[in-house]
Model the fold of this input.
Amino acid sequence: MHKTTPAETQSAGRHLDSVPTRDTTEDTVDHTLARRARLRDRHAQSLAKLMDQRSDLRGVHPLADFVDDAIRWTA
Done:
């Protein structure tokens, strides 16, 4: 059986390709934050539309009421 030595397992080209650079990491974080913001806005907009269409849902879930009120106050 052939044992691998540390020098064989740490080839420079293969190792450096798999390590993300700082710019790549920052771009990924920025992309993730932007995606979360768009998703949060879309959900808030959908909730406000639903609460407008269905007034019988008022009082069912306190967080939904809070978000709906917060959106109305900022409009």
Notes: Residues 38 and 44 are 10 Å apart (CA to CA). The helical segments are 6-9, 12-18, 22-53, 62-74. The chain has a mean pLDDT of 80.
